[in-house]
Design brief:
Layout: E1 6-11, H1 16-25, H2 27-30, E2 34-37, H3 39-51, E3 57-60, H4 68-77, E4 83-87, H5 97-109, E5 114-115, H6 118-125
Parallel strand pairs: 1-2, 1-4, 2-3, 4-5
Helix pairs in contact: 1-3, 4-5
Length: about 150
């Protein structure tokens, strides 16, 4: 891949082990890009990379409950994020659910690909479209549909 992407990595507490395993497994790809992570997730990935002598540019935000999800959502709005990987704990309630939904919504509204499980993350990072200079994603169209 020739393009340098900015990739957001976010994981809830019960998904952090999954995220770190995924990041280490895909370190050869991730090391060529700028990673923006919520606080704890970023610290865990950085530690795992350091233990394996992998260098990657990792920018930590605040922890999710302290506004990290909102910081990344703002980056999405400013077109500073190319891809988001958000491993969500769907089995337990989150105290900052509004921020979580805001990040997911902003990715959808601003046409930023977002993966919420490892399989979709793997599919997204291996897409040949990242290197296709002729591919330009279309902006979503929010047009009233008339059923008549």
């Amino acid at each position: 891949m020739t393009k340098r992407l900015t990739i957001a990595l976010v994981a809830h507490d019960r998904r952090k082990v999954d995220m770190v395993e995924w990041a280490v497994h895909n370190a050869h790809f991730l090391a060529h890009h700028h990673l923006v992570c919520t606080g704890t997730t970023g610290g865990l990935i950085k530690k795992a990379f350091n233990e394996k002598n992998i260098y990657a540019e990792i920018t930590p935000m605040h922890s999710g409950p302290l506004g990290g999800d909102a910081e990344i959502a703002a980056m999405v709005v400013r077109k500073e994020i190319n891809l988001a990987i958000f491993l969500i704990d769907d089995l337990n309630p989150q105290p900052h659910e509004a921020d979580i939904q805001m990040l997911l919504r902003q990715c959808r509204v601003h046409n930023v690909p977002i993966a919420c499980n490892r399989y979709s993350a793997d599919l997204m990072i291996t897409s040949s479209l990242w290197d296709d200079d002729n591919y330009k994603p279309l902006e979503p169209k929010y047009i009233q549909f008339n059923r008549e």
